[in-house]
Amino acid sequence: MGMQALNEREGNMSPSTIEPGRGLDVLDELPIHLALARWLVRSRHPFLSRKWAAFFIDEFKSKNAKVTPASEFAEERQVILFAEQGQGIESCVVSLAMLTQAQIPIRATCYRSTMLNWLLQTDQNLDQPYMKLFHRMSQGILSPGSVLVDFKWNLGMLIQIGLSKTTPTVVLEKKQLRNYLMDEESPTGNVMNDGIGRVSLALMRKVQHALGLDYLPSAIQGRIGSAKGIWVLDIGTQPSRIWIETYKSQEKWNCDWEDPQHRTLEILTRSAGLEIAQLNHQFISILESHVKHVNPPHYYTLFAQL
């Protein structure tokens, strides 16, 4: 996520107790899924000499995924935790103002609400639909400044942007950002550059050096501040200057570009040479179900050759 004071975000669950004064009898009165959600959100979970707070639930993607019958299907989720305090974390409490100022990186006590406010910049985005939805979620109103971990719709997508496994490369200056309020549209009003922007040759060379590549990428996928998408190399417009452009379709919330962490270009993937890949058989099945007038014998003969 790029935040200097952001501590480890994930950890394994371990038994913990409900905070003093709450009592286990409160959980006994709730359905099991609500009791589990309340225990996850309202408790601080001690593990590895630190206290962790749950702030997001995501799908669990197993590396050894197997096709199972519908009767045996079970939806698996993983809880993302944030270390607020404990061993290796200073006792002083980090404020939101401290996170937006350039300073020496520290590991200080940082509460879940402060971290999410830093990421989503709620004060500047109260008029956004996802923030209105967020405030209306009654289960999310746990205590002043607290948040619910099981986000849905746009709000969950925004937090996933912050959790994307990217590699920070170049910190840009504000004058090097070309933030356009409108997209490139066709005469009929269709957005022609949805999620796509350009970067200069000089900036792409810095990205190449930061990633240790022996070639110059023609395109990169990543994020900078609240903008995510794909940026393609532009060698014809001021190639010696460092600049990057963002468009309305790329920016997911109003971003405070004063924070150097929000001006850090983070790379998810980059263009590479062509190579042999495996064809997903499940994708073939989907195509088969949508194709009319298919010749079954001929189709299965080709499928067996894959």
TrEMBL record:
Coiled coil: none annotated. It holds the Pfam family RdRP. GO terms for cellular component: nuclear RNA-directed RNA polymerase complex. It comes from the Eukaryota. Residues 159-289 form the RDRP core domain. Signal peptide: none annotated. Keywords: Nucleotidyltransferase, RNA-binding, RNA-directed RNA polymerase, Transferase. The keyword RNA-binding applies. The keyword RNA-binding applies. Residues 1-20 are annotated as: Disordered. Its EC number is 2.7.7.48. One of its GO terms (molecular function) is RNA binding. One of its GO terms (biological process) is siRNA processing. It catalyses: RNA(n) + a ribonucleoside 5'-triphosphate = RNA(n+1) + diphosphate. PANTHER family: RNA-DEPENDENT RNA POLYMERASE (PTHR23079). Belongs to the RdRP family. This is RNA-dependent RNA polymerase. It comes from Fusarium oxysporum NRRL 32931.
